[in-house]
């Protein structure tokens, strides 16, 4: 699917697109790309490419390895650009030690307890890679696979289709899962992700993207002063291994209440037992809107200094807010600065963790003949 030569498909997206007013400032149409370049080579000789595209003031760089968002640049209130997604400058770092920076996650976002579940009477044992549990699809999830990439321009949209087929039994999951993910930048600079998957045997699936945000720019310090809003009255408390207990707990009167905009750091040291277990926030919020047919706005992140904002809309019922608790100063990011605890955060749209073992949670089962579909839209402002 991937083209063999350097490919430039420009013009169509840029042509005829009117300047868009955003944040009071007219932004010239900038639809450009996708442009392909070599990013690195894996140990087995597989070449990894980086695709660059831009539209409506957003500049995106995506790797064929893991569908990773390697860079996402947006302007601040003065028009100054920064890369607001944590990542690495070199492929070797993604292979050696990435905590899922920018990556597509599959087959199952977040944890499945003991890596086990039973479906239609058959017990399955998954790859276990997080203590006794399976995290983000197991030891070699979709974040570590090379995807086939197909660029497109469609009207004023610019984007990439990414394809990966996971064979029956891969990481312990049943069924051949054919996955297609589309990244689109529209003329307003919104980044939309559309996921589809089909299977030839009953299986479970929960796809997401693991971009780490720092709206002041990656490597610029803590996200504790970012203001966050999450439209959720409940969250799913966990055990010590971060597996949901099955309870849906109210956020009212707890540090987990983000129904009104609140700095991430305000209550992060409140000593709530759930925060102590997770070393901060690392939980699934139960979105009040539930599963919806189309994306609905569920979260807003704002950096007061730069003015940059991110709004997230999704059709999914859950949002994993992870406050970068495991960043420990051992990784050096894209611009050469060290990432310490809380230097970036994730907002992963998803079905709830461990759903295959939790009959009361919305189902993640996919059967032959059905198509798994989900969409998430990221809208940027300043
Ligand atoms: C998810 C998990 C976290 C952590 C990160 C990756 O957000 O919930 O516990 O594993 O991924 O480091």
From TrEMBL:
Pathway the protein contributes to: Carbohydrate metabolism; hexose metabolism
Annotated keywords: Carbohydrate metabolism, Isomerase
One GO BP annotation of this record: galactose catabolic process via UDP-galactose, Leloir pathway
UniProt xrefs under Gene3D superfamilies: 2.70.98.10
Enzyme Commission number: 5.1.3.3
Keyword Isomerase: yes
Superkingdom as given in the UniProt entry: Bacteria
Family membership: Belongs to the aldose epimerase family.
Protein name: Aldose 1-epimerase
């Amino acid at each position: 699917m991937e083209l063999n030569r350097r490919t430039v498909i420009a013009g169509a997206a840029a042509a005829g697109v009117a300047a868009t007013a955003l944040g009071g400032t007219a932004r010239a149409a900038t639809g450009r790309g996708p442009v392909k370049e070599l990013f690195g080579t894996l140990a087995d000789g597989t070449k990894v490419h980086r695709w660059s595209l831009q539209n409506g003031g957003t500049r995106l760089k995506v790797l064929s390895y893991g569908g990773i968002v390697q860079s996402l640049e947006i302007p601040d209130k003065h028009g100054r650009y920064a890369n607001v997604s944590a990542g690495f400058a070199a492929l070797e770092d993604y292979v050696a030690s990435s905590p899922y920076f920018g990556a597509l996650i599959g087959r199952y976002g977040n944890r499945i307890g003991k890596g086990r579940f039973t479906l239609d009477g058959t017990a399955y044992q998954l790859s276990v890679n997080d203590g006794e549990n399976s995290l983000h699809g197991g030891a070699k999830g979709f974040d570590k696979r090379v995807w086939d990439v197909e660029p497109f321009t469609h009207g004023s949209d610019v984007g990439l289709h990414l394809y990966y087929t996971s064979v029956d039994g891969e990481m312990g999951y049943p069924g051949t899962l054919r996955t297609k993910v589309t990244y689109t930048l529209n003329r307003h600079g919104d980044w939309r992700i559309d996921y589809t998957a089909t299977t030839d045997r009953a299986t479970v699936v929960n796809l997401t993207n693991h971009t780490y945000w720092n709206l002041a720019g990656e490597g610029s310090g803590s996200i504790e002063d970012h203001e966050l809003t999450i439209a959720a009255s409940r969250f799913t408390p966990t055990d010590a291994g971060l597996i949901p207990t099955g309870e849906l707990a109210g956020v009212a009167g707890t540090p987990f209440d983000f129904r009104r905009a609140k700095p991430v750091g305000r209550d992060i040291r409140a000593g709530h037992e759930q925060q102590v277990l997770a070393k901060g926030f690392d939980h699934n919020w139960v979105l009040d809107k539930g599963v919806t047919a189309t994306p609905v706005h569920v979260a807003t992140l704002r950096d007061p200094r730069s003015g940059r904002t991110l709004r997230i809309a999704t059709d999914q019922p859950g949002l994993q807010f992870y406050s970068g608790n495991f960043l420990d100063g051992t990784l050096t990011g894209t611009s050469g600065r060290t990432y310490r605890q809380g230097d970036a955060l994730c907002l992963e749209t998803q079905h709830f963790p461990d759903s295959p073992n939790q009959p009361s949670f919305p189902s993640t089962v996919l059967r032959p003949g059905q198509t798994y579909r989900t969409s998430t839209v990221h809208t940027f402002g300043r």
